[in-house]
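Sequence, structure tokens quoted for completeness.
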Amino acid sequence: MSGAAGRRRKGSAVTPVLRRAATAVIIAAVCVTTALAAPAAAEGTARPTTTETSGVPGPASAYLALGDSVPFGFDPRVPLGDLAAYVGYPELAAPQLNLALANMSCPGQTSGGFIFLFGADNGCLPYRAVAPLHTAYVGSQLGAALFFLARHPKTRLVTLTLGANDLLLCRANTTDACTSPAEVASTLKTLSRNLTTTLRAIRTVYHGRLVAVTYYTINFADPTVTVPVQKLDEVLAGVTTAFGGTVADGYAAFAKASEPFGGNACAAGLLIPLTGGTCDAHPSRAGAALLAQVLVEAATRQ
């Protein structure tokens, strides 16, 4: 969710943290971005380019993945532009669902920047300036999604993981690192408004399966990390279900898998390992596979 430029890192953890310097994306575990105005206009078009991992599929078998660095499959160890090495849960779930994937997610994408290209941003714009996305498009991610869905009326699945970078911006832009309940509440209120704008627009052109894949935390034993992520997931899940979607509970899946390791998702092998025994906040291949598993289960239930 948090993006970057060059080889610098910015954090963003999945579920709880997604930051890591200007080029990484962690979904950070505790913050929320303050006031993202939610412009209703969403400009953008998807260009029919294909990458090694995903492109623009045929109209009868499409799966459209939307969101930030978690579905993008961001990995700070991978050279920018090496798309085949960025493997998120959409790349793993699409073959299991027998669907061709168009992955429009962008590292560092906030809910405001998703709607309006120059809205609040945590790294998506700098990333797009120096490296390609899985599926190329111009304008905002929402605008590109609407264009894609209008051109592919038989799209079978749309997934969304969005909101962690809102918290990360709050953390970066407040003197108390977004520890105030009022700041978190304000950020989540804006997130809810932006998600409502997003899904209302999507439902004007698409009426099929819609699944929100929720965030996890890096340490399920730490309430300072888990509580903000739980609240974020509640907003993401609540708005999605209000628009006839369902939820793939990434939080619960990661929590269960981390249990034997004291709630530590890094020790459980679910996060990208770094030198010194630490982990980046993004999902490892095993973590992405677990998110793909809960997504497939949710999509087949709907």
Observations:
- The chain has one domain: 4-301.
- Confidence is low (pLDDT under 50) at residues 1-55.
